[in-house]
Automatic annotation (TrEMBL):
Keywords carried by this UniProt record: Actin-binding, ATP-binding, Coiled coil, Motor protein, Myosin, Nucleotide-binding
Residues noted as binding ATP in the record, renumbered to the chain: G174, E175, S176, G177, A178, G179, K180, T181
Family the UniProt entry places it in: Belongs to the TRAFAC class myosin-kinesin ATPase superfamily. Myosin family.
Myosin motor domain boundaries: 81-615
GO cellular component, one term: myosin complex
Coiled-coil segments: 584-1030, 1059-1121
Domain Myosin N-terminal SH3-like: 28-77
Keyword Nucleus: no
Native organism taxonomy: Eukaryota, Metazoa, Ecdysozoa, Nematoda, Chromadorea
Protein name: Uncharacterized protein
UniProt-recorded Gene Ontology molecular function terms: actin filament binding; ATP binding; cytoskeletal motor activity
InterPro entries: Kinesin_motor_dom_sf, Myosin_head_motor_dom-like, Myosin_S1_N, Myosin_tail, P-loop_NTPase, SH3_Myosin, XRCC4-like_C
Amino acid sequence: MTHEADPGWQFLRQSPEQLLAATTKKFDSKKNVWVADPEEGFIAAEIKSSKGDTVVVVTSKGVEKTIKKDDAQQMNPPKYEKTEDMANLTFLNDASVLHNLRQRYYSMMIYTYSGLFCVVINPYKRLPIYSESVCQMYLGKRRNEMPPHLFAVSDEAYRNMTNDKENQSMLITGESGAGKTENTKKVISYFAMVGASQQSKKEKSKKDKAQVSLEDQIVQTNPVLEAFGNAKTVRNNNSSRFGKFIRIHFNQGGKVAGADIEHYLLEKSRVIKQAPGERSYHIFYQIYSDAVKGLREKLFLTRPIKEYTFVSQAEVTIDGVDDKEEMLITDEAFDIMKFTATEKSELFAITAGIMHMGELKFKQRPREEQAELEDGKEGELACKLYCVEAEKFVGALLKPRVKVGTEWVNKGQNLDQVNWAVGALAKALFARMFKWLITRCNKTLDAQDLSRDFFIGVLDIAGFEIFDLNSFEQLWINFVNEKLQQFFNHHMFVLEQEEYKREGIQWEFIDFGLDLQACIELIEKPLGIVSMLDEECIVPKATDLTLASKLNDQHLGKHPNFQKPRPPKGKQAEAHLAIVHYAGTELEEELDNERQSRSKAEKARNEMQLELEELGDRLDEAGGATQAQIELNKKREAELAKLRQDLEDAAINAETSMAALRKKHNDAVAELSDQLDTVQKMRGKLEQSGEQTEAVKRENKALAQELKDIADQLGEGGKSVHDLQKLRRRLEIEKEELQQALDEAECALEAEEAKVMRAQIEVSQIRSEIEKRLQEKDEEFENTRKNHSRTIESMQVSLETESRGRAELLKTKKKLEGDVNELEIALDHSNKLNVDGQKSIKKLQDTIRELQLQVEEEQRSLNEVRDHANLAERRSQVLQQEKEDLAIIYEQSERSRRQAELELAEVKDSVNELSNSNSLLLATKRKVEGDLQHLQSEVEEALSDAKVSDDKAKKAIMDASKLADELRSEQEHASNLDKSKRALESQVKDLQMRLDEAEAAGIKGGKRQLAKLDMRIHELETELEGESRRHGETQKVLRNKDRKCRELQFQVDEDKKSTERMYDLIEKLQQKIKTYKRQIEDAESLASANLAKYRQLQHVVEDAQERADAAENALQKMRLKGRSASGVFGPRGLAHSMSTTGVASIRRGGSRGAFLDEDFAEE
């Protein structure tokens, strides 16, 4: 039969007619696109027109809309309609992937490849694609030869195992209800069929039809585990409430050689409570269905199912599922798995006992912290099923025994505590029963006659579950899925990208696991949710609310993945906390802020450059007014060029140093971020914010002092135009460099700590206030400047001021360079210490883990030795007891023997009397006496032998059952001898013949029995010596193990101390890092101060320019006046006048208004 004739083929691949019809559709690659739709996700559309970055499209619904060109996603040609591998799509975008999966799902082709992966969509119906005929299609076929199917992936794993001789694993993930459990069962069935097909025909013919094969047992583990581990949820009628990893083992020939199962995260809380719309585990309802006749009566389940609280809090039936039929399937699976009738009945009894336990009724005693039993009928039924005494069972719940010091005391329990104890006991019973069930299945699946060379592992765990209100189980289920997804991303994407890098492929690295890591660290790291939950469990009287309060104090507002829960809606319960799965938004916002800051800084820099050029042009025009100024300008321009070159070199060096410092700073921050998280990062941030506030205050004080100094400097006199121009340009260059360094430092600090932005905003406000105050001071200075004289000699004073300023700036520059070098050295030193500390911590952690493993191994060995020693001691006690019993039996035997001797003496007396009375029997009498003497000697020998055996028996420890039988046989023989002697007394006439026969038989039997006893005593003595020797060796091994355990415990304690010392070292390093950060902030504040000083000097330059203009005008006037008055004063008079003006200027200092009046008075 061909593949197309199989009924399941239409659900695997399109027919040729369907392919042809799809390829003939009308399509224009330039017009047909996908656009977003709020209802369907994406719908097809056709571009009508385009203009710039926008296009006008008409959707398949006939709606015309205008969208951005980037929002339209390209559509693939019709030949890719319902493609089997989405990696073949020309345009691999969200819309195309969604459309391809949706169209294949509409055709019930639920399997689709996406490169290396196989995507499955749950059809929620039975499809004929898992039959034996479909399985035969995929046997030995390559992946590209057949349509997408789970069997193709399974067969590829099987072939890789047999060809590469390496173990394989299959990972089946998805949300709850996605079909993971069903696909896992199909995978197991396929491997069982493939493994069975590798058997030879002879092996198959030898097997009886009624015999159950190993492959059938592997398949039948699913009904057993589903009955006890699956339940109905809101999304899924058969949801796995535990995770399992199934290893199917194969031998070298590819034949199934057994299997084993590991389980994780059983949802124990479902045993005693269920959410609305859900149900407890299937087994509770299956045993109640009475599918197995007489089972309900045997388990005392006589009440309606709704009256059993533990299993009836929500749903008790499932639509379309017959619990009777499922119970028969489970019972049949038990039989196939070789469960005995006793094992099945005990499993059902424990399950029913849990149902009865839920009906125990207690009440609180008035005015006492003690509960008492109100209704214990159901408890008695549970105790019958558990085979325990009801009175002791209830007493253990009401007044459990607690060990206090070295004594045991009874602790009273109130009503809530008793109810909690009942629930906890029910959950623990079910969990241990489930664990035993897994172990029992593994025992059945262990094929002893086949070697286990390779295995294929199949992982099936509970999927993502996100409800409005999630319990502790949902937290752990989602946490496991989160870690599993990160592990998958790391191995499938990160390692793949590293392979690209090793091969030299140009590739931009993408970190797929970044979003998941933040959530994982919130849960499992120190001071995380799990750590704080462990701590809260040992706190007296701790509740859910106290834990929630501590979590909110620790993480709320400090961790992006920890949020305050939304208020409840309607009857919804109030949640305690909310955890976000992804944390990409905050990082994107920080990146946008950094880009905006850089663009603003660049724009301000360009504006400042234009302003500087304009001011330079104006100064050039003003500076070329006279020939003397031109010559002076040339000279000072040369000096300015030299200074500019020096400043440029210094700027390059400073930029290089700042770049290196930023790089090292960023590296240090990246390396130490994990450690900062472990030592309360938020506390450090708060402390740092306080330090920043102090730094801002110090900066304010420094700015106020600088304002005062500048005001004093402004009061000393005017500045030279050309010298101030040189100072202004140099400061402009320095300002640009400082501004650039400040912007870069601000961006770096924004990326490191978000709270620095607030401090910078406050600093900017303070700067604006300072600038405003500077402006007010400038206005005051403008009013003062108009009252001062305009003289040329004041230029000398400005030159001296400029020299001093230059010297101060050079000193500041050297100080900054020294600070930068010190910071670099300190950062390098801290980085080295941090790396060494990390290595030491990792080594210590590895050592601790190894030592813990050794301690556990030694503890297991010690337990085994103790068990062996206890067993030997118990056996020795049993043998000792048997020895005492044997001694008692031997004493009884000895008393019987003495009685026989007395009776024998009586017989002798009777014989003597008879010989005296009967003369005719004299000869007979003599003969009888001789025989009697001979018999007496033999009896005495037998008695001596018995005494020897008695001495030996007192020294030996014998096997009670065998030795007792032998002693009883000897005692019976002694009684027979006694009977023979009494027969001799009654039959004197036949004494010779019968006495000979009896004595001969007794002597022979006694010798044989005594010989056997001697041999048995010797054997038992040898066995006792061996047991004593083994007991001594066991005691010696026990002492050695105890000594090793103490040594390991001491070593673990030493390692803990070393770890604590390393943590102290880490805290010291973190303190140093804080110090380095403060130094960086001080450097930043110094840069801000220099920037403010530059702005002040800029105002000074502008004022000096105005004063220079006024001085130029005054000089022109003076020249005109000098030419008009040359006939009176002459050249000397003018020189004298100018000299006098200079002296007056030096003498009066700040009284420039008065000096101006005197000057004009002299003129």
